Amino acid sequence: MGMGDRSAAVTRETAETAIELTLAIDGDGEATIDTGIGFFDHMLESFAKHGLFDLTVRCDGDLAIDDHHTIEDVAITLGDAFEEALGDKRGIVRFADRRVPLDEAVGSIVLDVSGRPWFQFEGTFSQQQVGEMTSQMAAHFARSLAMNGGLTLHTSVEGENAHHEIEALFKCLGRALDDATRIDERRSDTPSTKGEL
């Protein structure tokens, strides 16, 4: 069974942010990111590189206030893009279980592309801030992605350096979403006894 064109272009405009985002699930890991938050841009590039997603993100956010709305709204838009690009989810693997290390840090994810949003996070970030990104926003990014992408997402981090902890989490998220959204050539239907996800 062929994959078809599993891509999406999504825009989101509120009083807080204006976002243009494109996603190709079956890409080469190419990313063009501009959110105004350097470390967040780096994390999205890492997510795309390790998930082999082609991703463009342009966000004009209210950074004069803080990083919250920009990071949250990019995650919402990315979740919408995954939901749109996956369509009826026919033929996907659906589940993934990944651990990714970065030096002393480890990010862990158990994922189900279930259509039933759920999020759980365990761990703490060792420093409050990395560059212009509030560390805790990494978990909030994952939560917002799960809620809008219809993902059951269990995540955890451990380590001693917040840069490493956050980067391990984003890399792990990319790898897990790549695993779960891959086409299983043995399957021609939607992977659910209900017949839909």
TrEMBL record:
Pathway: Amino-acid biosynthesis; L-histidine biosynthesis; L-histidine from 5-phospho-alpha-D-ribose 1-diphosphate: step 6/9
Pfam family of the protein (one): IGPD
Catalytically driven reaction(s): D-erythro-1-(imidazol-4-yl)glycerol 3-phosphate = 3-(imidazol-4-yl)-2-oxopropyl phosphate + H2O
UniProt-listed InterPro entries: IGPD_sf, ImidazoleglycerolP_deHydtase, ImidazoleglycerP_deHydtase_CS, Ribosomal_Su5_D2-typ_SF
Swiss-Prot/TrEMBL GO biological process terms: L-histidine biosynthetic process
SUPFAM superfamilies from the UniProt entry: Ribosomal protein S5 domain 2-like
UniProt main location, coarse: cytoplasm
Compartment annotation: Cytoplasm
GO cellular component, one term: cytoplasm
Highest taxon listed in the record's lineage: Archaea
Membership in a protein family: Belongs to the imidazoleglycerol-phosphate dehydratase family.
Protein name stated in the entry: Imidazoleglycerol-phosphate dehydratase
Organism: Halocatena pleomorpha
Gene symbol of the encoding locus: hisB
